[in-house]
Amino acid sequence: MRILERSVYVGPSTYAHFPVIRLELDLGALEDWPTSRLGPSFIESLLGTLPGLREHGCSYGEPGGFVRRLSEDEGTWLGHVLEHVAIELQNVAGETVTFGKTRTSGVPGHYHVVYEYEQQDVGLEAGQLALTFIASLLPEELRPPGLVPRSFDFARERDDFIRFAQRRALGPSTASLVHAAEARDIPWIRLNSQSLIQFGHGRYQQRIQATVTSRTPHIAVELASDKEETNKILGQLGLPVPQQRLAQREDDAVRAAEAIGHPVVVKPYNGNHGRGVALNLMTADQVRSAFQVAQQISRSVVIEKFVTGDDHRMLVVNNELIAVSRRLPGHIVGDGTSTVEQLVEAVNQDPRRGIGHEKVLTRIEFDLQADRLLAERGYTRQSVPAPGEMVPLRLTANLSTGGTAEDVTDVVHPDNAEMAVRAIKAIGLDVGGVDFLSSNISESYKEIGGAICEVNAAPGFRMHLAPSSGRARDVAGAVMDMLFPAGTPSRIPIAALTGTNGKTTTARMLAHIHKLVGRNVGMTTTDGVYVDGQCTVKGDMTGPVATGMVLSDPFVDVAVLELARGGMLRAGMGVRYCDVGAVLNVQGDHLGLRGVETLEDLAKVKRIVVEVARDTAVLNADDPLCLRMADYTEAKYVCYVTMNPQHPLVREHITAGGRGVVLEQGIKGQMITIYDRGAHIPLLWTHLIPATLEGRAMHNVQNAMFAAAMAFSMGVKLEDIRHGLRTFQTSFFQAPGRMNVYDEHPFKVIVDYGHNPPAVELMAQLAQKLDVAGRRIVVLAAPGDRRDQDIADTARAAAGSFDHYICRRDDRPRGRGPDEVPRMLRDALIGKGVPSAAIEMVPDEQQAHQRALSLAQPGDLVLLFADALTRTWKQVINFKPDSAPAPPERVRPVAAITVSDLPAVEVPSLNGDTLVRDERGVRLARETED
Asked: How far is residue 532's CA from residue 519's CA, in Å, rounded to a whole number?
């Protein structure tokens, strides 16, 4: 039993629309050992060690369902058990995950084990620990060798795993803000491995670090961290603060305590979570000892007058008191029979207590401070406190050290509430906590006294979210309402599109339309990431990493995401939803890779885009595989794109008031027409769109129709769509590798990135439609990782459309021999009837392109299918026709033209010249009267 492969999906994938992990598991000989054969002892050990598994519903959808699957006559296989154990381990570590599914991969004994995760590292570790744990329960003779260490102790490994998870988890305060955002449908992105979170996308984003927000003034944080300055500022406003001094030497601390008057408090100048704080110090020796402890945390130490009273945390958000908790230090209460150690153990049995921030309360741990406090009472860990006696084990009331909290928000006296708000405003915080000592929070500090001992710039929320007693408060909701008031947007418009061909051009067209409207567009493409037209990262950036770059950029107003098959198969989509999702086509490419064997498999991958579209799903009605995707979308609207005005389903859809973009025939040519809610809206003649080469490039006509459909669905005005399409050029700088035309040579050159049979066929059709006076020359290639059939089909798609073929390979052969791909292309061309004399093999890309350019004569068309786009374009524009081999001798003017040993065809032209075509090219000879 072993894990062959691990895949992490950060967003929507073919497995789920949320983050999941997929393990490819090989059971080996254990394929013959389902739980029914392993017997009751295995099941009892499994459930006894992880009792939470009893609550798993599994396929039955109710608690106990998984236990039923384990115990059925057939039982269940260990891959399925691994799925549930990985989920339960994450639950034990405090993460809320429930989803999982296990399916056979088609290979005997191999399974795809899929389960939900919250943190990637934790989810992967859960899978590995689950594998080892299950193996440890097997009989020795079935246990895979080397999988279970001799020293394996599951209880210890479980606790280590919990600590591992907690080190990577969001703290309770940050997690509560994330949950509040999710409840308000505000997207969020974790920006680092700590607590830096972005809420919202693009220009609407706000950020938090723990509970400090992007609106929190830096100077306010600095003031709150300076306990001495905070004390002075609040005192100058007449707010109740204890007398305080700052010391950096032990003797100065003793003198400060004497000046203030005992008892005093000694605490680090910039400490937190109650670390290094000593209370109620009555002697110089106590002050010296406390000073030494505090100075281990901070060079400067605060000596402060000790004020009696209960410790209260008052939370202020956006100038409003939101919650108040009365905090008690970690303690035990005697029962007259149990020892201190037993009482601590009993307290820690509370299911609300866990390790670190795992749960709402923290376990009480024995340490030097606890032992010292016991010693002050004359106790040890084995002492038996009297019934009802409260024995403190901590000096401070922080929850992180085992303290408890009681919500008292509803009984706070108005004077105390006003005092807290004034204190936070005085420091300048948008979110702040006031630590206030008072014997009774329901009475005014003006009457009974009390003191503000600290102001916190990053107050913890845990005590308010889940108090030990009293009402829980939605403090995180108050922060989110401050950052995103009602009616304030948090999401930028997101358009996502995929398909086999046309993705990049359509994405660029749509981005161009938005840019002309005045929006800053963030775009991901196979060329790179672009922000406002500028390339920020080069390369194939069509995966979730690139999506995150765009959505995290505060400059971006709208996102246009080109999504490729590879990225979705490797890691899923990088965003949970899109507003408009489009699938342009599903055609044969990349088949046989990563489990995608058929066009139907490929359609399932590309369908994800419309499955998560919220507003509009844009689908190619002329592609049956795209058409069927309408059944899988939950978008409000479906917009069909068709080049067939008689399409029966689209006609029915439009008649019912649906949306569609249709190519219609008119007097002047073909018109792109929009139908929506019964309206018929002529948009633009195709010959007016430069990218279509006067309407001849039908693939770009279709791309323009998709761009128009998406822009219209995103609320762009009609005139802005027209203007965008009429000004979009397929130049190398605007759309590199997408039908880039170079006309500065005596012949025409087109550079295109087409690398699959459908793309090559479209360009071959275009080559036939263009008016070419001379020959049509093509440099043909195919990626080496495609199936043999796909490479041959690429050549067949070009056969018959050109006069001369040059076959090459890419720089990266991807597992093929140096000239294997060119030979396969050549053989397929010959098989389609192309004369061998019209075919050359030049394996190197640069040399192949140079050969084609050198062969070209005035009036020829050269089509270069390129892989290294920038290098090819530079090669084209820097080519010097004069340096090319001299053309054959011009045909002399004669009354009747013949060319010895070469077939000749005379074609009269409009200006009276006679065009003579031979195998070397086209020459002009003017007929003369003599």
From this structure: 8
Question: Measured between alpha carbons, how far is 130 from 212 in angstroms, rounded to an integer?
Answer: 37
Buried b / exposed e across 349-365, counting CB within 10 Å, b at 16+? eeeebbbbbbbbbbbbe
- Tokens 């390129």 sit on residue: 866
Could you tell me where the beta strands, DSSP code E, fall in 544-658?
Answer: 558-562, 578-583, 613-620, 637-642
DSSP string, 429-468: -SEEEEEEEES-TTS-HHHH--EEEEEESS---HHHHS-S
Look at residue 306 and give its three-state secondary structure: coil
User: Residue 137: its pLDDT value, please?
Assistant: 95
- How far apart are the C-alpha atoms of 900 and 92, rounded to whole Å? 89
Q: What is the DSSP letter of 726?
A: H
Block residue for tokens 């003599």: 930
Question: Does 569 or 912 have the greater pLDDT score?
Answer: 569
**Alpha-carbon span 861 to 749, nearest angstrom:** 6
Burial environment of residue 523 by CB neighbours within 10 A (0 to 12, 13 to 18, 19 or more): buried
Q: Write the CB contacts of 25 (distance below 8 Å, at least 6 apart in sequence).
A: 1, 2, 3, 4, 79, 82, 110, 111, 112, 113
User: Is the whole-model pTM more than 0.70?
Assistant: yes
* Distance, CA of 44 to CA of 711 (rounded, Å): 59
Comparing C-alpha atoms, which of 130, 137, 127, 129 is closest to residue 45?
A: 137
* CA 845 vs CA 842, 851, 874: distances in Å: 8, 10, 13
Segment 72-80 mean pLDDT: 91
Task: List own/partner pairs for 635-641 with CB under 8 A and 24 or more apart.
Answer: 635/581, 635/610, 637/713, 639/709, 639/712, 639/713, 641/702, 641/705, 641/706, 641/709
CA dist 283 and 532 (Å) reads: 67
Alpha-carbon span 696 to 96, nearest angstrom:
56
DSSP secondary structure letter of residue 52: G
Q: Give me the phi and psi of 104, to 5 degrees please.
A: -70, 145
Q: Are 607 and 583 in contact (CB under 8 A)?
A: yes
**CA pseudo-torsion sign 831, 833, 836, 842:** negative
State pLDDT tens for residues 612-638. 999 999 999 999 999 999 999 999 999
- Parallel, antiparallel, or unpaired for β 331-333 and 390-392? antiparallel
Pairing of strands 110-116, 20-26: antiparallel
**So what's the pLDDT on residue 903?**
41
pLDDT over 70, % of the chain: 92
Tell me which residue of 304, 277, 306 sits closest to 293, measured CA to CA: 277
Closest CA to 27 of 76, 74, 71: 76
Beta pairing partners, 507: none
For the packed helices 227-236 and 218-225, what is the interaxial angle rounded to 10 degrees?
Answer: 100
344-359: per-residue pLDDT in tens? 888 888 777 766 655 5
Per DSSP, the three-state class of 4 is: strand
For 157-186, the pLDDT digits (tens) are 999 999 999 889 988 899 999 999 999 999
Burial class (CB in 10 A: 0-12, 13-18, 19+), 108: exposed
The confidence score (pLDDT) of residue 354 equals 66
CB burial of residue 754 (10 Å; 0-12, 13-18, 19+): buried
Q: Environment class of residue 144 by beta-carbon count within 10 Å: exposed (0-12), middle (13-18) or buried (19+)?
A: middle
Band (pLDDT 50/70/90 cuts) for residue 924 is: very low
